[in-house]
Design brief:
heterotrimer; A mainly alpha (709); B mainly alpha (125); C mainly alpha (556); A: 709 residues; mainly alpha; 4 domains; two-stranded antiparallel sheet; C: mainly alpha; globular
């Protein structure tokens, strides 16, 4: 297929420019502008960007053509702003690209972003430096749009770093609190570990293939004559980029920063740490899907990381008592689901979940923000309860969010989660590890769509891989159950039962202003209906003809982007669909949701004394969970402390070995010229000189000695 | 180069060392000795070689004069060879060039002198 | 017979002037010298007790003219050494002449307020900066070890004096003492190295040294002269390593950086380092790029020495910087770390002739680093007053909000130093590391990637201490009150640094082009390198048809 190409689609530049303008205006003039103007300057760019994106989507649809096999391919729109680096050893443009994948993400970013901006006008109304907050927030959106719209890895990387910086600024926004400043720092440093791995992966990719442009790279990856080059480096590059993604998307082993990042204002948590930035890792892997699909070992790693993260984060979430921390661990868990989806090759399902998750998690965070706002910055759910009386709208919207994330049918979370679980069970594309790698990589071989369940010619089905898939599915199901449980634990403890707040707080509990409630209602609506673009195939089969295509809209929409990766997959595509497995997955996830909600209801409404009793009995397990498996402490022990120690040691070496006579290592005890001279005489400088001479002698010895033989 | 090529060098060193050694030895044995306290001081100019260096302070003016001396001494060293070869240079047709180069050099030195003068480098009190 | 040629040339040199076109080579240096001389004359007639700001502006204008002259000379360069093999007049030299002038100008702009607030408003300060810049301009142009050494000392001695300029301040005096004694010591070692090289090859001309070393090897096998040369190379290298403050020759840096006047520290950390790198590049490539001397991958040559220095500098610099509580001291160790990063690029680009063009990454890094570092020290200098300088992190408390411009500049400079987009520092690190990865992939040698990974990991530590500055500036309460002297100079300088840092990060095109042109127009390279250059540069002879060059700004 020839990619459709339409450069100079100027609207792309405008999409990115709008938030930047907002950030600059608010950042430079915000302190002097009236509050209302600040609000407008902050929100208007988001809306404009959203509108421009819609124009882009329309143009994309307009240039779509029916290609062979009834596939509707739209290609992409692109816009080159300018040549950024143009030099012999490295070249990259600042250029943007809008294809169905980035369009989906941009719609989420600008759409949900707009709602959260509107919400923030209410939430931050009292804050004196609101202008600064909005400036950072707009800057964040700008960086995020760079990340998503970038046409090459470098632009993506700039956005990638940019969102990190903005996240740092926003986490530490209430700077008076040194703990919050530390949280921002932690998020930034942990992310940097991942970022540089990402950078290294990018370099290797660039110097092996000579390009970092997505379009050119994907052409290389889907061309039989060039793909062997990429297969060699797919594993190292993929792993390095995966490390970067685990940092940004808070997966094992770099997930520790996200719960601490909750120190920022709640709308920030909703926008950055739930809806957009943390999904960047999923986006990048999807963007590079043709690379990840090349090496089944890589895919397996992604899937296992995702699955384990989902499960561990869910177990931790069970015992947390801070409303935002529960949501933070739930976010990590849901991100784990997305990684699992990517890892089993269900890219569409991953993006689908990104979208639905953006809606319901933003809703939940904003709902939590509304609660915190109403309770005067109380975040402990043990001191809440019975809030449905005081804040009915917040309660209903929050309930919808909980139902959605729990996977109750007819709400969005059900559809995307079900698609992931079913894919985990049925996509066994990485089974042919030995087969693909050993055979001398022929594209025809790659693209053969063999269904291992019915037709296993040329492919050896390894039993253990089936077991791994079974395990992924099983663990995923268990996680879904836990999700339903802890979300409803949260809901019941916050909104149902008796109010446990003290009398003083009780008096002031109030429903939030309209500017906060309207976004909640809109998001609640979206959390319900967003799922209707991805019905399970087994259901679609019974639908009337006219509804079948809209019911699978998300798959058709993204089909083009993931086409090549899908053809590597060994399951059948739409034609020979394993309906049985899908029905099994549906039954499983509905059951899990029901059991989870039921248990939560039993433990926190029916028999509220039980949780304490259980906690008493399983003390050790609780302690482990409450302390998040001691991961923070472990990292402190194995990474932070040794680095500091090494620093101290180097310093000690640098100062005391050489500069032993001076106290405190400051190098300056001298106050008068006489003392200086005495120090000169006592050998301070002589020591330095001796040190230099010794170093020189050592170097000469090291150079000459081995060569003497 | 072979080791034999260094032979003259070695011979020279040996001769130098032995001459000095012989003279010292002869002087030790045959020279008249009449030591007094003053004669045994390492520096005959009267300064005490042992003790705090900082105890004896020289005025910075000594250094100013010394440095000025060295500067204008060096000027002489440059100007004399230039004057010697100027005729040769002029005969090749580069007389003006040579003159200009030296003029620049002298101008810079003159400015230095003006600077020193105005900063009080030439005043003793 | 090469020696014979040289002595004939020298005889000729005594009698005949260089051709008129060669005099162009002197222009940038001559302008700065002229400014310095005029400066003396003006300063002599300065009325006592009045501020000397106009002298500072005069020096800045002079340095600006010198920098601008490189723009006009950019197309008039010569492909051969001038002044009888004493100087090169190529774009590489012009590039660094411009860099030194601009760095000197920015440092001077930061100074008048600083000097006045330290009650040390004396004209000699600017004069010494100017003279140091003269030394720098000739140092990068040197084609002979003797020219190099003289220029090296002309650059260094004013800096020694400047380090102790606040002579009433014990720490400044101590810094000057330490710097002078150790600097003189390392210069002596370097001189000894030059003597050994002269002994081994019979010449001090860089190109002739290269020829003679190759000749020695080919004609006479491994000769005693070879070992002498090797020792000489290492000694010369140690002189450069001292100036760029690479571990283990960094030992002076923390004490000197802490004690010296803050604007001078900025100058010292940027321009001196950049020029030392440039001169090192010139000497190593022109004279010592002979294969067995160069080594590479533990074949026992200077590349291996630098390889180890690079690794050690990155690790020690970054780790020790974490533990520092004094900001200037932290920046001193971070400058050691930056020397390590630049050495990574240096090692990668010079490990084999075919990677020579990757040296443009070093040039770009040095430019980016210069503005970042002068900006950071400029901000620190702004707050300093006699006896109440900004020293520790705590002192920075809340300054970011109280002085928004200074806070913003510091933020940009710190982001740049930490390598975060869209600042120049990010791009520079990207460029350096990418060249090392490229070298690694092309040679199949993992050592470079190992070095890059080390650099990447240590720079994560770097993020920690750079951000700490911002945390204190914006998120901690003020513990002390500062009364900075309000002055336009430092503001202009640091804002210029910040703007340039951002500009180079967002629109690096021209700067990269200039770095590339400077490295492509590198005169004196041996044949193996020259062929690489020629391949990359099919447009060498006709400069007039290059409109991009004409439009370019030479200062970047």
């Amino acid at each position: 297929m020839e990619p459709l190409f339409s450069n100079n689609f100027h609207y792309l530049g405008l999409i990115v420019l709008m938030p930047l303008l907002g950030a600059i205006i608010n950042g430079l003039l915000g302190a002097k502008l009236p509050s209302k103007v600040v609000n407008v300057v902050a929100c208007a760019p988001m809306l404009l960007s959203f509108v421009f994106t819609l124009i882009g989507v329309r143009a994309l649809l307009a240039q779509g053509v029916e290609s062979e096999g009834g596939r509707f391919s739209m290609g992409y729109l692109s816009y080159t702003v300018y040549e950024w680096i143009y030099s012999g050893s490295l070249s990259a443009d600042i250029s943007f690209m809008l294809d169905p994948l980035s369009a989906t993400l941009v719609l989420i970013i600008t759409g949900v972003g707009f709602l959260i901006h509107v919400y923030s006008t209410g939430y931050m109304a009292q804050d004196p430096s609101k202008w600064r907050y909005f400036s950072y927030l707009n800057l964040f959106v700008f960086a995020m749009l760079l990340l998503v719209l970038g046409k090459n890895l470098l632009v993506t990387f700039i956005g990638w770093e940019g969102v990190g910086v903005c996240s740092y600024l926003l986490i530490g926004f209430w700077y008076t609190d040194s703990e919050k400043a530390a949280a921002g720092m932690k998020a930034f440093v942990v992310n940097r570990v991942g970022d540089f791995a990402f950078l290294l992966g990018m370099f290797i990719l660039f110097f092996t293939t000579g390009t970092i442009d997505y379009v050119e790279l994907s052409e290389l990856a889907t061309n039989a004559s060039t793909v062997p080059l990429l297969i060699q480096i797919a594993l190292p590059v993929g792993l390095l980029i995966l490390i970067g993604c685990t940092g940004k998307s808070a997966q094992i082993p770099l997930f520790v920063w996200l719960p601490d990042a909750m120190a920022g204002p709640t709308p920030v948590s909703a926008l950055i740490h739930a809806a957009t930035m943390v999904t960047a890792g999923v986006f990048v892997i999807c963007r590079l899907n043709w690379l990840f699909t090349l090496d089944p070992r890589l895919m397996l790693t992604v899937a296992v990381i995702g699955c384990l993260t989902a499960f561990f984060a869910a177990t931790i979430a069970i015992v947390q008592t801070d409303i935002k921390r529960v949501l933070a661990y739930s976010t990590i868990s849901q991100l784990g689901f997305m990684f699992m989806a990517v890892g089993v090759g269900a890219y569409t399902a991953a993006i689908f979940h990104v979208a639905t998750h953006a809606f319901f998690k933003a809703l939940l965070f904003l709902g939590a923000g509304s609660v915190i706002h109403g309770m005067h910055h109380e975040q402990d759910i043990r001191k809440m309860g019975g809030l449905k009386k005081y804040m009915p709208i917040t309660r209903w919207t929050f309930l919808i969010g909980c139902l959605a994330i729990a996977g109750v049918p007819f709400l969005s979370g059900f559809y995307s989660k079900d698609m992931i679980l079913w894919s985990a069970l049925s996509n066994v594309h990485f089974l042919n590890i030995e087969g693909v790698m050993a055979a001398d990589v022929v594209m025809a071989y790659f693209t053969s769509t063999v269904n291992p369940f019915f037709n296993a010619e040329g492919v050896e089905i390894v039993t253990w891989a089936k077991i791994v898939h079974g395990g992924l599915f099983g663990l995923g199901l268990l996680t879904a159950l836990l999700t339903a449980f802890y979300m409803f634990r949260l809901y019941f403890m916050t909104f149902e039962g008796e109010c446990r707040a003290d009398a003083e707080t009780k008096k002031h509990i109030h429903e939030s202003p309209d500017s906060m409630l309207i976004p909640l209602i809109v998001l609640a609506f979206l959390s319900v209906v967003a799922g209707y673009i991805g019905w399970p195939h087994v259901v679609v089969a019974f639908m009337p003809e006219a509804l079948q295509s809209p019911a699978l809209l998300i798959e058709h929409w993204l089909d083009d982007v993931f086409y090549h990766s899908k053809t590597f997959r060994l399951t059948g595509r739409f034609g020979d669909h394993p309906y049985g497995l899908e029905a099994l997955a549906i039954a499983g996830s509905v059951g899990a949701a029901a059991v989870g909600i039921g248990t939560a209801w039993f433990l926190y409404i029916k028999r509220p004394e039980l949780p304490a009793w259980i906690a008493e009995r399983a003390r050790l397990a609780f302690k482990w969970l409450e302390n998040k498996y001691y991961i923070d402490e472990l990292y402190d022990r194995i990474a932070v402390q040794p680095t500091l120690l090494l620093g101290q040691l180097s310093y000690w070496f640098d100062r005391y070995i050489i500069d032993g006579l001076l106290v405190n290592g400051t190098g300056f005890v001298a106050e008068s010229a006489g003392k200086i001279l005495r120090h000169m005489q006592s050998g301070n400088v002589q020591r330095y000189a001796t040190y230099i001479t010794l170093a020189l002698v050592f170097i000469l010895f090291a150079l000459i000695y081995p060569a003497c033989f | 180069m072979e080791i034999a090529d260094y032979l003259p060098l070695i011979l020279l060193s040996v001769m130098a060392f032995s001459t000095v050694a012989v003279i010292i030895v002869l002087a030790t044995f045959f020279g008249p000795k009449n030591p007094t306290k003053e004669k045994l001081i390492p520096y005959e100019s009267g300064s005490d070689p042992v003790g705090e260096v900082r105890g004896v302070r020289f005025s910075v003016k000594f250094y100013m004069v010394a440095i000025s001396f060295i500067l204008f001494d060096l000027e002489t060293i440059f100007v004399i060879p230039w004057a010697m070869s100027w005729r040769q240079s002029a005969s090749l047709g580069f007389g003006f060039y040579s003159f200009a180069v030296m003029a620049i050099f002298l101008a810079i030195l003159t400015i230095g002198l003006v600077y020193e003068w105005s900063q009080g480098g030439l005043e003793w009190d | 017979m090469l020696n014979m040629q040289l002595s004939q040339m020298n005889n000729l040199a005594m009698l005949t002037p260089p051709s008129a076109i060669e005099l162009n080579a002197l222009i940038p240096g001559a302008i700065v010298t002229l400014v310095a001389i005029l400066f003396i004359l003006i300063d002599v007639f300065h009325r006592k007790g009045t501020p000397r700001d106009y002298l500072a502006y005069f020096s800045v204008v002079g340095l600006g003219v010198a920098a601008a002259s490189t723009y006009f000379l950019w197309d008039d360069v010569l492909a051969r050494p001038v002044f009888f093999g004493m100087l090169y007049f190529d774009r590489f030299a012009l590039f660094f002449a411009a860099l030194a002038s601009v760095a000197g100008g920015l440092a001077i702009l930061c100074s008048p307020a600083f000097l006045r607030s330290h009650r040390m408003d004396r004209g000699e300060y600017y004069l010494l900066v100017l003279l140091s810049v003269v030394g720098m301009i000739f140092m990068v142009a040197a084609a002979d070890l003797l020219t190099l050494f003289v220029a090296f000392e002309v650059m260094s001695i004013p800096i020694y004096v400047l380090a102790g300029f606040l002579r009433d301040d014990g720490r400044s005096a101590e810094a000057a003492m330490k710097y002078f004694v150790l600097g003189a010591f390392s210069a002596t070692i370097m001189l000894y190295g030059i003597a050994l090289i002269y002994g081994a090859t019979g010449t001090t001309n860089l190109e002739f040294i290269g020829h003679n070393l190759a000749y020695l090897q080919v004609a006479e096998g491994v000769h005693a002269g070879y070992w002498m040369a090797l020792v000489g190379v290492v000694l010369i290298l140690s002189g450069f390593a001292f100036k760029i403050a690479a571990v283990p020759f960094h030992i002076w840096a923390p004490d000197v950086y802490t004690g010296s006047p803050t604007p001078i520290v900025g100058f010292m950390a940027s321009a001196v380092k950049a020029i030392a790198f440039a001169a090192m590049l010139r000497v190593m490539v022109v004279a010592f790029s002979f294969e067995s001397l160069r080594g590479g991958f533990f074949g026992y040559g200077w590349i291996d020495v630098l390889f180890v220095l690079a690794g050690a500098s990155m690790v020690l610099g970054n780790l020790v910087a974490i533990t520092q509580n004094n900001v200037k001291r932290m920046l001193a160790y971070s400058s050691v770390a930056h020397a390590g990063y630049i050495l990574v690029g240096f090692v990668a680009a010079n490990s084999h002739p075919s990677f020579f063009l990757h040296n443009d990454a070093i040039l770009f890094y040095l430019v980016a680093y210069t503005f970042g570092v002068i900006g950071a020290f400029g901000v620190l200098a702004y707050f300093g007053r006699r006896g109440e300088a900004v020293e520790t992190y705590e002192d920075l408390g809340n300054l970011g909000f109280k002085y928004p411009v200074m806070g913003l500049v510091m933020g940009i400079c710190m982001f740049s130093a930490a390598g975060i987009p869209p600042t120049a520092g990010f791009l520079a690190k990207l460029y350096i590391f990418s060249s090392a990865v490229d070298a690694s992939i092309q040679t199949g040698e993992f050592a470079f990637i190992g070095l890059v990974i080390l650099g990447v990991l240590t720079s994560v530590a770097g993020v920690y201490y750079y951000l700490k500055v911002l945390v204190y500036m914006y998120m901690k309460p003020a513990l002390r009150e500062f009364r900075p002297l309000d002055h336009i100079g430092p503001k202009v300088a640091v804002v210029a640094c910040a703007v340039l840092t951002l500009y180079l990060g967002i629109f690096p095109g021209r700067a990269l082009e200039l770095s590339r042109e400077a490295i492509v127009d590198f005169v004196g390279a041996p044949a193996a390198v020259q062929s690489v250059i020629d391949q990359a540069n099919p447009i060498v002879p006709d400069f007039a048809v290059e409109p991009a060059v004409v439009a370019a700004e030479p200062v970047l």
